[in-house]
Amino acid sequence: MLIHGKCHCGNIAFSLMWEPDPTEIPARACTCSFCTKHGGLWTSNPRGALEVVVKDPSLVSKYAFGTRTAEFHICARCGIVPVVTSLIDDRLYAVVSVNAFEDIDAALLRRASAGFDGEEEASRLARRKRNWIPDVRYLAGGKQ
């Protein structure tokens, strides 16, 4: 299944190839202070492939906090955070916001709370390598 998503104004868009077609899509409500304030609800498929296209990179703000091992890609025009990336061992991994999905049946989403407080950095990066999308292409202004 090909899942499309974007920020509200369309400056940050993504296409996620989800193989095999999902019978349900896990949607993790992260309990960190940033995600709580933004209503972050994330998903990933470790067998998936993601392409992120940014029309105007000057309108993207990247925010990292805590361990600074993940970057939240925030559209400066509309304020939506459709993608989070983490560079681990020279490879880009990502999760996407289910709130940014276009035309996906909400009945597919399986919401659950996810808290990572107290997780050590090495464990956090290992978890991301196991669970996040490992095949990520990030195109900004037509460039990779």
Task: Compile the SSE list and pairings.
Blueprint: E1 2-6, E2 12-17, E3 25-30, H1 33-38, E4 42-43, E5 49-54, E6 60-63, E7 71-75, E8 83-88, E9 91-97, E10 101-102, E11 109-114, H2 121-131, E12 135-140
What order do the SSEs take from the amino end to the carboxyl end, as H and E? Answer: EEEHEEEEEEEEHE
What gross morphology would you assign? globular
Number of helices: 2
Class computed from helices, strands and strand pairing: mainly beta
- The count of strands amounts to 12
Report the span from N to C terminus: 24 Å
**Relative strand content:** 35-45%
| Average of per-residue pLDDT values | 93
Q: Record the strand order, biggest sheet.
A: 10-1-2-5-12
Account of the protein in words:
By secondary structure, this protein is mainly β. It has one domain: Metal Binding Protein, Guanine Nucleotide Exchange Factor, Chain A (Beta Complex), CATH 2.170.150.70. The protein contains 2 helices and 12 strands; from the N terminus they run βββαββββββββαβ. The strands form 3 sheets. Strands 10-1-2-5-12 form a 5-stranded mixed beta sheet, with no helix packed on it. Strand 8 (83-88) and strand 9 form a beta hairpin. The longest helix is centred in the last third of the chain and has 11 residues, at 121-131. The chain is globular, with a radius of gyration of 14 Å.
